[in-house]
Amino acid sequence: MKRIPMMLQMALILFCVMAIPTAILTWYSGTQILHNSEEAIAESSLAGLRANRELNNNALNNLAQDAVRLTVTSIFNRIRNFETFAELNSNYSNVSSAQTILQELNNLNHRVDGVYSSYFYLNDSDYVVSTDKGITMLDQYDSTEWMEEAIVGKRGISGVWFPRKLSSGVDVLSYMLPLNSLSTTTSGTIVVNLRESQMGDYLSSSEQGEHDYLLMTSDGTIISHDNKELLFTDGSKQPFIQEILSKGTTEGYTFHEFEGERLLYTWSRSEPLGWMYVNIYSMDKLMVKTDNLQRSIVLLTMIIIFVGTVLTAFLAIWLSKPVRELVRTVRARGNPGGTCKNELAYLDAAFRRMEEEEEGLHKLLQEREQDTRKLAIHNLLRGDVTKQIAELFPESNYIVAIVSIDQHRRYVSKLNRETRSYNRHLLISQCESQFPDGIHARSVYKGEGCFAIVINYGQAELENNLDRIKGVLVTIREIAIELLGNSVTIGVSSPTETSSMISDQVVEAMEVIKHRLIEGSGGITFWNPEAERGKKYIYPSNSERRILNYLDIGDRGSIIKEMEIIRNEIQSAEYISYDNILFIYNQMIGATLRHLMENNISTVRIFSGNENIYYAIASADTLDELEEHLCEFFGDIIEYLAHNMGEINYGERIIRYLEEKFCEEIVFEDMAKVIGISYSYMRKIIYELTGKSLIDYVNMLRIQKAKQLLLESTLNITQIANEVGYYNVQSFNRFFRKYEGISPSSYKTAKISKPSKTSKILTS
Fold it and tell me: Helix, strand, coil shares of the chain as percentages rounded to 5?
């Protein structure tokens, strides 16, 4: 937003205030219109389906009632005695009776639209009286076997409707009504065949966009459908019909998406027959008018937004004019707001920058003052007394306390630099704030985990002040443990009455800190000059000899016990200096390393990758740490010697073999078999012992021998090459130059000419 001018920003805000609610209102109203339109169409379609269902039911009921009324007449009694077609045609009177029945059946056909045919079948007779084929033999008419299947669904004395396909290929819905013995003595069946297409006419809707319709019996069989191929199939397999049937409701409607088209399904169940009427509409076609209305609303909304946008632009220009003039004035006097194009952001940045510059200046002054004080204190600790010291320390007496972090290396490894710096800042602040009124204290960080606190107090009530200082130091120790998460040791110097002696007080306090090596960490120790500082150094030479002997036999337990004896001797000494203690342990390390080298044991292989033992000793805080480092040092040696003793023996055999055979042609694989190890293992051993490969080591032996022959024999270069194992001068020259940097002849000339030059110098 900072890169958008205020005028455009205000125009955008005003536009959003106007356009967004308008757009939301348009969207909401359109959605509601669509929803309400769909609901209204669905209700209307369901009402139409309900009306069509009633129309169809009425037509079927009328047809059934006409058939029932025909059965209560005595017209069928006229032919009940004629079971054969021959008997019926035996005289005119019989034929006339059958023609009367035929006329009544024709009248029945005309009472309801869509009747294809009707016929009467006298039980056990061989003929039928039909409206489509007249009076004809039964075997020449459609089969009546379907009646047995239809009669299964008959209930009471009413007829039954049964869908079927006639032999002529016409799909009909047959109404079969057996004559009732209560109304007539004739046994027979009236069948009225209603065209399936007439059912479709009843179900078809006049509304635009109708997609499909179907009529199903109670068992789900389709008896009428727009697609004639689906007649008499299972309707539940049609899309979404099973879902409708599972609802169990008498009527209703639902919406579905099918092949990218939104469809409306309406259904209604006929109670008397149990038939299910279903109409399917395409909502895309039914909603044409609604969609047009919605598009008109959207277009009108866009026009309103466009007009509002123009008005918004003019309004934004008018409202932003004062601010733009102010920005031009500020920019004419400088550019404190940066490159912001937005006027409000520019002014905000300008004022904020002014505040930051003011705060930065104030902070800089404070930091400079603090840095000046810290520098003055650092200089004071080094013995340089500046004028500012008198302002910081107005009293006459001084004491220096050094707060040292115990096991500083471990503390550093646990925390990152930023955390340690933050902890130091907190501790320095806490140290200075703990001292009571009348005692002035300044604290700085000296490095290597040590904080120096310069304490200044008056001569009056000197003893009382010292007691108060001791109490504050105890508090500082507890605070340091909490802030640093680590214990500290505090060393306190002797009092002095002049600031020029502060550097000496620092030395005293640092010396006191070293006493934690014996007394342990976490204490507060005051300087106490000892009269016996001139005593000679002590050193446990007997323990050194025993430790080296234990090292040779690999007795780690005895070495640990001997280290305990050394520690007890140090602790029992009446006075022993810090330097004497370090001397004891460093001397033992040096003696051990010399012992290993005298026995041709490579110390590099033992301690490669390990921490420098001398550095570890120098950074130890307590005797326990020193002893731990030494025990680990001796343990590594014992472990290495135990693991590599066999390898050392193999190494001696390899070196001896090479020194005896280097002038000959050596096949290293055969050499390995002679020694009893693999070739790869032999290469590994010689490299670890000498730092060179087998070939380099052999060449080095040959070159050393060649150098001796060049100086002590009269052999020429070719003879010397053959003597040391090279079979051509070129190879000899190449390897000699590789190891010595010059050719053999140049080497011989340089070595022989050097004594003559020396003798000339002596003679002159």
Answer: 60, 15, 25
CA distance 178 to 190: 6
Q: Taking each helix axis as running N to C, give the angle between helix 556-572 and helix 623-661, from 0 to 180 degrees, rounded to the nearest 10.
A: 140
Contacts of 280 (CB under 8 A, 6+ apart): 210, 211, 212, 213, 214, 263, 264, 265
Question: In the block, which residue shows the tokens 């710096």?
Answer: 421
Write the DSSP symbol of residue 622: S
Which residues, in sequence order, are CB contacts of 717 under 8 Å at separation 6+? 729, 732, 733, 744, 745
Q: How far apart are CA 538 and CA 577, in angstroms?
A: 10
Question: Is 373 in contact with 487 (CB distance < 8 Å)?
Answer: no
> 400: which strand partners?
454
Integer CA distances (angstroms), 34 to 252, 261, 266, 289, in order: 19, 16, 18, 11
* First-to-final CA distance of the chain: 94
Per-position DSSP letters for 93-114, written without gaps between them = HHHHHHHHHHHHHHHHHHHSTT
**Cβ–Cβ < 8 Å for 369, 362:** no
| Per-residue confidence band for 114, with pLDDT thresholds at 50, 70 and 90 | confident
Is the dihedral angle over the CA atoms 312, 317, 318, 321 positive or is it negative?
A: positive
Q: How far is CA 248 from the centre of its chain?
A: 49
**Which among 582, 592, 648 is positioned nearest to 621, based on CA atoms?**
582
Which percentage of the chain shows pLDDT scores above 70? 84
What's the rounded Cα separation, in Å, for the pair 223 and 199? 9
Q: Which residue has the tokens 């190449």?
A: 734
Dihedral angle computed from the Cα positions of residues 224, 230, 233 and 235, in that order, rounded to the nearest 10 degrees: -70
* Residues 711 and 751 sit within 8 Å (Cβ to Cβ): yes
Q: Identify the CA nearest to 627 among candidates 594, 593, 584, 596.
A: 584
375 vs 201: CA distance, rounded Å: 109
Q: How many Cβ atoms sit within 10 Å of the Cβ of residue 612?
A: 10
- Are 189 and 176 in contact by the 8 Å Cβ rule? The answer is yes
Q: Could you give the strand order of the β-sheet that contains 488-492, starting from the edge strand earlier in sequence?
A: 439-447, 450-457, 397-405, 488-492, 524-526
pTM: 0.41
List the beta bridge partners of residue 251: 268
> 467-525 pLDDT, tens per residue?
788 888 888 888 888 888 888 888 888 888 888 888 888 888 888 887 777 777 888 88
Q: E strands of 365-425, at which residues? A: 397-405
Gyration radius from the chain CA atoms:
60
For 281, the 3-state DSSP assignment is strand
Q: Exposure string (b/e) for 618-653, b if CB count within 10 Å is 16 or more?
A: ebbbbbebbbebbeebbeebbebbeebeeebebbeb
Residue 230: both structure tokens together: 């689906």
Running DSSP on this structure, what letter comes out for residue 561? H
Average pLDDT over all residues of the chain: 80
Contact 198, 173 (CB under 8 A): no
Are the C-beta atoms of residues 513 and 404 closer than 8 Å to each other?
A: yes
SS3 labels along 25-53: HHHHHHHHHHHHHHHHHHHHHHHHHHHHH
Helix and strand totals (H; E) in the chain? 27, 16
pLDDT band at 118 (very low <50, low <70, confident <90, very high): very high
As given in the structure block, the two tokens for residue 267 are: 């259904």
Is the four-CA dihedral 390, 394, 398, 402 of positive or negative sign? negative
